[in-house]
Amino acid sequence: MKSLFSIAEIRKIEHSLAETLPPGTLMQRAGEAAASAARAMLSGRKILLLAGPGNNGGDALEAAAILAGPDTDLDAEVTVLHRPGSAPPSPETQKALARARASKAHFVDALPLGRDWSLIVDGLFGIGLARPIEGDMRALVEAINALGRPVLALDVPSGLDADTGAVIGPDGVAIQATRTITFIGNKPGLHTFEGRDYAGQVQVAPLGIDPGQRPPAGARLNEPALFARHLAPRRHNSHKGSFGDVAVIGGARGMAGAPLLSARAALFAGAGRVFVAAIEPVGAVDFVHPEIMLRDAQDFDSGAATLVMGPGMGDSVTAMRVLFKALEGKAALVLDADALNLIADSPDLQGRLAQREAPAIVTPHPLEAARLLGVTSAVVQGDRLAAARELASRLHAVVVLKGSGTVIADADGAVAINPTGNAGLATAGSGDVLAGICGSLLAQGWEPREAALGAVWVHGAAADRLVAHGSGPIGLTAGELPAAARAVLNALAR
Ligand SMILES: NC(=O)C1=CN([C@@H]2O[C@H](COP(=O)(O)OP(=O)(O)OC[C@H]3O[C@@H](n4cnc5c(N)ncnc54)[C@H](OP(=O)(O)O)[C@@H]3O)[C@@H](O)[C@H]2O)[C@@H](O)CC1
Ligand SMILES: [K+]
């Protein structure tokens, strides 16, 4: 189970464990896990450990005591930069300090000159960081980042909010880690917003706690197990009607590419029949994919098709009219881009969406989510999980909040963060492709939540596949994604 625990949930677990384990046990285990992770990363002889004022510093001191202790067989120079706070450290941190002082570790008060550290271990702040890092601590973080050496962060890169993935600010700083070893359970902030960039590779050290002993977490990482039941091999005796119809509605003047990209994605993700109903007619045929049927949105009868509304749709009277009609109807809906902006401007449409019975997936980027919630995009990004949850509950829909570590939330409050994808997806049309895959999976009978989880996972994995083959992240184009998504889906189905 790929659980993601909030800081409050971790504190609760810590609290209940404190009643059964001897004092200091968890810090000792964290120190041991940190020391082995450091050894695994080490190529060279010089290790610098940064130990801050709290228990995160205690973990680093325990690790130093092990790496430079009497039982070590490690041939390395261990240096500790310890920054005590104004308040006395916890008893377990005091013990760790005494053990580190008694070891061969060399203590310094300031960052030594030179940049030849083989490894830097960041134990400045963990989940107890309550305000931005300032003053000489800020200077230290900036100096460490400027060295550009491999960094192992303990629990969370110092400066990053483990709940939200935001650097604690305004104008805050955080340690740029190569790898993060996080304790007891994984944390959402390491996987979304700025978290993926700051945490690097994430490794979980459960500290001897059986996952079954932990209470259920409020969030989780997305993975194929969450939607794989829909990926059964196709029966020989099937026909195009077995895989549903998708109609993409969009394409104002000059924006014909957006619905065509969505439609191609729907086709490549396996929908039986795909239409584009264009606001401004685009022509008789898509010569690249003549399978796609082109229609005029004004007089299009979508029948039982799943509707993907919004790609390049604009805000004309026609756009408004087809959106209104769709919200009145009973079709399963994917709402993206301009459809979301029109809904954001109209409390009436928001109410209609919330009251519909049929499934709906909405796929906002942070600015679209902000408009829907009536806040700024900084507020949305400041707590992406909360924003997605709030929107899902208000609109009574599955919400896909796009961005690094896309968040998928449903109206029941379940939240997942997607681990696939890369910077190549920050390109025009990539959202149109995602909406098309969502619509395709819905049309094939997937439950809305699973369709959203599956589409987001596959879309990200398609980009990862393209990057692995050299087609990105620089210059990756949205038009390449549908074929890569098809390959990912078929690989999953096998
Ligand atoms: N949970 C668990 O089960 C386990 C937890 N473990 C470890 O403990 C970590 C949490 O420890 P923690 O609670 O002591 O907090 P931590 O992150 O060290 O920082 C707090 C200190 O920093 C200070 N401070 C805060 N902000 C500041 C600022 N901007 N600038 C300067 N100072 C600032 C603050 O002082 P104050 O706010 O009182 O001034 C306080 O002294 C956790 O991440 C994990 O590594 C493991 O040992 C094993 C099991
Ligand atoms: K840290």
Automatic annotation (TrEMBL):
<feature type="binding site">
    <location>
        <position position="431"/>
    </location>
    <ligand>
        <name>AMP</name>
    </ligand>
</feature>
<comment type="similarity">
    <text>Belongs to the NnrE/AIBP family.</text>
</comment>
<dbReference type="GO" id="GO:0110051">
    <property type="term" value="P:metabolite repair"/>
</dbReference>
<keyword id="KW-0520">NAD</keyword>
<dbReference type="InterPro" id="IPR030677">
    <property type="entry name" value="Nnr"/>
</dbReference>
<protein>
    <recommendedName>
        <fullName>Bifunctional NAD(P)H-hydrate repair enzyme</fullName>
        <ecNumber>4.2.1.136</ecNumber>
        <ecNumber>5.1.99.6</ecNumber>
    </recommendedName>
</protein>
<feature type="binding site">
    <location>
        <position position="155"/>
    </location>
    <ligand>
        <name>(6S)-NADPHX</name>
    </ligand>
</feature>
<feature type="binding site">
    <location>
        <position position="56"/>
    </location>
    <ligand>
        <name>K(+)</name>
    </ligand>
</feature>
<feature type="binding site">
    <location>
        <position position="432"/>
    </location>
    <ligand>
        <name>(6S)-NADPHX</name>
    </ligand>
</feature>
<dbReference type="InterPro" id="IPR004443">
    <property type="entry name" value="YjeF_N_dom"/>
</dbReference>
<keyword id="KW-0547">Nucleotide-binding</keyword>
<keyword id="KW-0067">ATP-binding</keyword>
<feature type="binding site">
    <location>
        <position position="365"/>
    </location>
    <ligand>
        <name>(6S)-NADPHX</name>
    </ligand>
</feature>
<keyword id="KW-0511">Multifunctional enzyme</keyword>
<feature type="domain" description="YjeF C-terminal">
    <location>
        <begin position="223"/>
        <end position="492"/>
    </location>
</feature>
<dbReference type="Pfam" id="PF01256">
    <property type="entry name" value="Carb_kinase"/>
</dbReference>
<comment type="function">
    <text>Bifunctional enzyme that catalyzes the epimerization of the S- and R-forms of NAD(P)HX and the dehydration of the S-form of NAD(P)HX at the expense of ADP, which is converted to AMP. This allows the repair of both epimers of NAD(P)HX, a damaged form of NAD(P)H that is a result of enzymatic or heat-dependent hydration.</text>
</comment>
<keyword id="KW-0521">NADP</keyword>
<feature type="binding site">
    <location>
        <position position="312"/>
    </location>
    <ligand>
        <name>(6S)-NADPHX</name>
    </ligand>
</feature>
<dbReference type="Pfam" id="PF03853">
    <property type="entry name" value="YjeF_N"/>
</dbReference>
<feature type="binding site">
    <location>
        <position position="122"/>
    </location>
    <ligand>
        <name>K(+)</name>
    </ligand>
</feature>
<dbReference type="GO" id="GO:0046872">
    <property type="term" value="F:metal ion binding"/>
</dbReference>
<feature type="domain" description="YjeF N-terminal">
    <location>
        <begin position="10"/>
        <end position="215"/>
    </location>
</feature>
<dbReference type="InterPro" id="IPR036652">
    <property type="entry name" value="YjeF_N_dom_sf"/>
</dbReference>
<dbReference type="GO" id="GO:0052856">
    <property type="term" value="F:NAD(P)HX epimerase activity"/>
</dbReference>
<feature type="binding site">
    <location>
        <begin position="126"/>
        <end position="132"/>
    </location>
    <ligand>
        <name>(6S)-NADPHX</name>
    </ligand>
</feature>
<keyword id="KW-0630">Potassium</keyword>
<keyword id="KW-0479">Metal-binding</keyword>
<feature type="binding site">
    <location>
        <position position="158"/>
    </location>
    <ligand>
        <name>K(+)</name>
    </ligand>
</feature>
<feature type="binding site">
    <location>
        <position position="258"/>
    </location>
    <ligand>
        <name>(6S)-NADPHX</name>
    </ligand>
</feature>
<comment type="subunit">
    <text>Homotetramer.</text>
</comment>
<dbReference type="GO" id="GO:0052855">
    <property type="term" value="F:ADP-dependent NAD(P)H-hydrate dehydratase activity"/>
</dbReference>
<keyword id="KW-0456">Lyase</keyword>
<keyword id="KW-0413">Isomerase</keyword>
<comment type="similarity">
    <text>In the N-terminal section; belongs to the NnrE/AIBP family.</text>
</comment>
<feature type="binding site">
    <location>
        <begin position="402"/>
        <end position="406"/>
    </location>
    <ligand>
        <name>AMP</name>
    </ligand>
</feature>
<dbReference type="GO" id="GO:0005524">
    <property type="term" value="F:ATP binding"/>
</dbReference>
<dbReference type="InterPro" id="IPR029056">
    <property type="entry name" value="Ribokinase-like"/>
</dbReference>
<dbReference type="GO" id="GO:0046496">
    <property type="term" value="P:nicotinamide nucleotide metabolic process"/>
</dbReference>
<dbReference type="InterPro" id="IPR000631">
    <property type="entry name" value="CARKD"/>
</dbReference>
<comment type="function">
    <text>Catalyzes the dehydration of the S-form of NAD(P)HX at the expense of ADP, which is converted to AMP. Together with NAD(P)HX epimerase, which catalyzes the epimerization of the S- and R-forms, the enzyme allows the repair of both epimers of NAD(P)HX, a damaged form of NAD(P)H that is a result of enzymatic or heat-dependent hydration.</text>
</comment>
<feature type="binding site">
    <location>
        <begin position="55"/>
        <end position="59"/>
    </location>
    <ligand>
        <name>(6S)-NADPHX</name>
    </ligand>
</feature>
